[in-house]
Design goal:
This protein is α/β, with parallel strands linked by helices. It has a single domain, classed as Rossmann fold (3-Layer(aba) Sandwich), CATH 3.40.50.720. Helices cover about 40% and strands about 15% of the residues. The protein has eight helices and seven strands. Strands 3-2-1-4-5-6-7 form a seven-stranded parallel sheet, sandwiched between helices. Helix 1 links the parallel strand 1 and strand 2.
Length: about 260
């Protein structure tokens, strides 16, 4: 079923990882997709019969130009996946200020600029349903994760921005939600690991479902959230983490269920 037929969608950070998988999923669901990234997205844009616009999300004017170009070329904007982000590791005392500012600039300011520009464009759409936005947060945006102080702060901020925008623009017909992935098999996820095979081992240990998440898992969730099937879902913080945030994976005297 083509859930997104005739929809015009933008995916930031769309040239790799979750963004790439979601761009493909959006196109499969019938949308015309614009990939916005600092990485080259021309090849994937050609693959999905979409478009690529180079865009640094930390530049508010660049984000405005990218959204304006999308509206000019395709007539409107229906869907915005506010996904571009970076990850750094470091405790509160071990994080240098330059990296702290950088992760907040990309993960918080970039999302804020995207919200502003997308909402402005969607307000020009006709009808009671004017658009849908999904922001990429993280399980690190709903619970503390040792060694990820600045990243945690940025993702908690994304959750707050999501809820606020949903409350502010719900009556205007714009839905805003965020997804909170666990450990996902992406280039960014791989680069944070200590060595080959570590992503699978750590993902299996951290998620009660016993495996690392795949970008396609998140892409399918995002596609649902921006579709009309989710028409009464807004302001939601949706975890997709294999039960990672549900509770402890083990406790004294518990070795797992009998099989």
């Amino acid at each position: 079923m083509n859930r997104l037929d005739d929809k015009i969608a933008i995916v930031t950070g769309g040239s790799s990882g979750i963004g790439l998988a979601t761009a493909r999923e959006f196109a499969h669901a019938g949308a015309k997709v614009v990939i916005a990234d600092i990485g080259d997205g021309t090849e994937i844009a050609a693959e999905i019969d979409g478009a690529y616009i180079e865009c640094d999300v930390t530049d508010s004017e660049a984000v405005d130009r990218m959204v304006a170009a999308t509206v000019e070329n395709f007539g409107r904007l229906d869907v915005y996946f506010n996904n571009a982000g970076i990850e750094i590791h470091g405790s509160t005392l071990d994080t240098n200020l330059e990296m702290h500012r950088k992760v907040l600039d990309v993960n918080v300011n970039g999302v804020f600029y995207g919200l502003q520009s997308a909402i402005r464009a969607m307000l020009n759409n006709d009808g009671p349903i004017r658009g849908a936005i999904v922001n990429t947060a993280s399980v690190a945006g709903i619970t503390g994760v040792p060694g990820m102080s600045s990243y945690n702060a940025s993702k908690f901020a994304v959750v707050g921005l999501t809820r606020n925008a949903a409350v502010e623009y719900g009556r205007a017909g714009i839905r805003v939600n965020c997804v909170c992935p666990g450990i996902i098999r992406t280039p960014m996820g791989e680069s944070a690991m200590p060595g080959p095979g570590a992503l699978d081992a750590i993902g299996a240990a951290a998620h009660p479902l016993g495996r690392v998440g795949e970008p396609e898992d998140v892409a399918k969730l995002v596609t649902f959230l921006v579709s009309d099937d989710a028409s009464f879902i807004s302001g939601a913080t949706v975890t997709i983490d294999g039960a990672m945030s549900a509770g402890f994976t083990a406790s004294p005297g518990w070795d797992g269920p009998e099989t």
